[in-house]
Amino acid sequence: MKSMRLLPVDKVVHRATIYRNSCGFDVFVRESTSQIVLRVGTVGAIELASAFGQRVVAALPWPGPVIVRSDTRQPLLTILTGPVPAHLRGGATFAALSSTGAVLAAEGDEVLLPSPRDPARRWLPHEPLDPYRPSAEVVVSTILACR
User: Fold this and answer.
1) How far apart are CA 42 and CA 79, in angstroms?
2) pLDDT band for position 90 (50/70/90)?
3) What is the CA radius of gyration of the chain?
4) How many Å apart are CA 147 and CA 145, to the nearest integer?
5) What is the pLDDT, as a whole number, of residue 140?
6) How far apart are CA 26 and CA 37, in angstroms?
7) Contacts for 147 with CB less than 8 Å, ≥ 6 apart
8) Residue 81: CB partners within 8 Å, gap ≥ 6?
């Protein structure tokens, strides 16, 4: 029996399907770049500098999905969370997060997920296999506790 070889585009679509079915991510593939895109809403995202982000991830009781991005001057981590409640988007929390360099993605922002055609993004420590995401409140309090 011959094994089927997947074309590069097929690999991207296959990975996006896994993200949808196994992780519950509402993703789409941007055809022009073959990037897998997650729109922030039912999933939250918090971006941090890698060194600080590593401390935060180590302090989380169960970190959930974390993306390492290496195509910037300084590597970044993006922690995916459950939905972000409105009170975390308020002034005091925004100011506290800003003081750590953390950025809370706004509703509707796009997060690029690791894909076979994007060597600049990878999962830490491995690709998520289920829909678990830590609550945004837990991640924010851990970030503030680690400053």
Assistant:
1) 14
2) confident
3) 16
4) 6
5) 96
6) 9
7) 99, 100
8) 43, 44, 45, 46, 64, 133, 134, 135, 136, 139
Q: Three-class SS string for the chain?
A: CCCCCCCHHHHHHHHHHHHHHHHCCCEEEECCCCEEEEECCCCEEEEEEHHHHHHHHHHCCCCCCEEEECCCCCCEEEEEECCCCHHHHCHHHHHHHHHHCCEECCCCCEEEECECCECCEEEECCCCCCCCCCCHHHHHHHHHHHC
Q: How many CB atoms lie within 10 A of CB 28?
A: 13
User: How high does pLDDT run on average in the chain?
Assistant: 92
Q: What is the model's pLDDT at position 107?
A: 94
pTM (predicted TM-score): 0.91
Tokens 């982000």 belong to residue: 53
Q: At 98, list the tokens.
A: 């800003």
Structure tokens at 110: 């796009």
**Encoded amino acid at 83, one letter:** P
pLDDT band at 141 (very low <50, low <70, confident <90, very high): very high
Look at residues 1, 80, 90 and name the one whose alpha carbon lies nearest to residue 36.
80
